[in-house]
């Protein structure tokens, strides 16, 4: 029985290539491509397992790219709950410069989900979350899926006695109607959510408390980019700095952070320790190409830096 169940409504076959330089109007000679099963919730489930958490992933898939993505996920010890759809799973393409620091990411919209297919996803989630402690809804929403899906997933989590973690953006955040344990907006997303400019830690913390006080969420983790992150609850605010580390790819770093946060709460760590684990996971993800899962030894090394 999984402690964590993730729902990824718009998964992707992640394709990563490397070229010495990326310049316009030229043929770019690349090395062998790397393929990974990707998408918010899938990435969270993979990293959660690295941290020792029993995780399951619910996701729709279709077409040749979907079959390849599902086969790649099967190489990880994650419990799979796939739902076959008529459309074709999207590909996400990342080009890395081996001769520089640039990373180019091309993200496709994904297939349209029919009402029946979306209903299957929710029914599968409801069956999978029995006995789970956390549910994570992460990633973009594909065409055809209304932002009201957040309320539907919140109801499923609540009925199962599980906490819902939401890592999405745009309308999905702004229309969140409560029943959410944790959200992880960027400063820009939090600004759009509360409808005012945010300057400095105090204003960011006050904005986070606004969405906590109105009952939307219990905990907000605000990504501060190179400034690290801030975790705000009704009673406490903690901030953990970023770690200086070489960046091979930023793909999956945010998802890795969410996996660390959920693990921290599952293990009943303090808020500062939970945030430190999240940042350690995000930093470890920067060392791997594309959405390749981060390594436990890197997580432990970065966590020790923050725990000193």
Notes on the structure:
This protein has 308 residues and is of the alpha/beta class. The chain has a single domain (4-9, 38-88, 112-307), classed as Ribokinase (UDP-N-acetylmuramoyl-L-alanine:D-glutamate ligase, 3-Layer(aba) Sandwich). Helices cover 37% and strands 23% of the residues. The chain has ten helices and 13 strands. The chain has helices spanning 40-50, 63-73, 115-128, 149-160, 171-174, 187-194, 201-213, 253-266, 271-285, 296-307; strands at residues 4-7, 12-19, 34-38, 55-61, 79-84, 90-97, 103-107, 134-138, 163-167, 180-183, 217-223, 229-232, 237-240. Strand 11 and strand 12 form a beta hairpin.
Task: Give a quick summary of the entry.
The chain is built from ten helices and 13 strands. The chain has 308 residues and is an alpha/beta fold.
Unreliable residue runs: none
How does the major sheet shape up?
Answer: 9 strands, mixed
Annotation field: number of helices: 10
Level-2 CATH architecture: 3-Layer(aba) Sandwich
Q: What sort of overall outline do the alpha carbons produce when their principal axes are compared? A: globular
Whole-number tally of structural domains: 1
Mean pLDDT across residues: 92
Order of helices and strands: EEEHEHEEEHEHEHEHHEEEHHH
Rg is: 19 Å
CATH superfamily: Ribokinase
Determine the N-to-C terminus distance. 35 Å
Can you count the beta strands? 13
Beta-strand percentage range? 15-25%
User: Biggest sheet, strands in spatial order?
Assistant: 5-4-1-8-9-10-11-12-13
The CATH class, by name, is Alpha Beta
Q: Helicity range of the residues?
A: 25-40%
Structural class by helix and strand composition:
alpha/beta
* Assembly state: single chain
């Amino acid at each position: 029985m999984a402690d964590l169940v993730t729902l990824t409504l718009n998964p992707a076959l992640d394709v990563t290539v490397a070229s010495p330089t990326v310049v316009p109007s030229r043929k770019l000679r690349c090395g062998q491509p790397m393929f990974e099963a990707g998408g918010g919730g899938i990435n969270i489930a993979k990293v959660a397992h690295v941290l020792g958490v029993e995780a399951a992933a619910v996701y729709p898939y279709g077409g040749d790219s979907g079959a390849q993505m599902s086969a790649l996920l099967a190489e990880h010890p994650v419990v799979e709950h796939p739902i076959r759809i008529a459309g074709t799973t999207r590909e996400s393409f990342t080009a890395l410069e081996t001769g520089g620091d640039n990373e180019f990411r091309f993200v496709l919209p994904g297939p349209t989900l029919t009402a029946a297919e979306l209903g299957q996803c929710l029914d599968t989630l409801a069956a999978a979350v029995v006995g789970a402690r956390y549910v994570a809804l992460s990633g973009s929403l594909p065409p055809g899926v209304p932002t009201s899906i957040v309320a539907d997933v919140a109801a499923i989590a609540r009925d199962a006695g599980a906490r819902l973690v939401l890592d999405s953006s745009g309308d999905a955040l702004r229309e969140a109607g409560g029943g959410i344990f944790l959200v992880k907006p960027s400063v820009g997303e939090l600004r759009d959510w509360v409808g005012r400019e945010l300057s400095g830690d105090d204003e960011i913390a006050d904005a986070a408390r606004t969405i906590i006080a109105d009952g939307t969420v219990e905990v907000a983790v605000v990504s501060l980019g190179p400034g690290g992150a801030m975790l705000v609850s009704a009673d406490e605010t903690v901030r953990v700095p970023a770690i200086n580390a070489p960046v091979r790819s930023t793909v999956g770093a945010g998802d890795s952070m969410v996996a660390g946060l959920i693990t921290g709460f599952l293990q009943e760590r303090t808020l500062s320790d939970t945030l430190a684990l999240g940042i350690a996971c995000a930093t470890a993800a920067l060392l791997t190409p594309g959405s390749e899962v981060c390594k436990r030894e890197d997580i432990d090394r970065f966590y020790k830096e923050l725990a000193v």
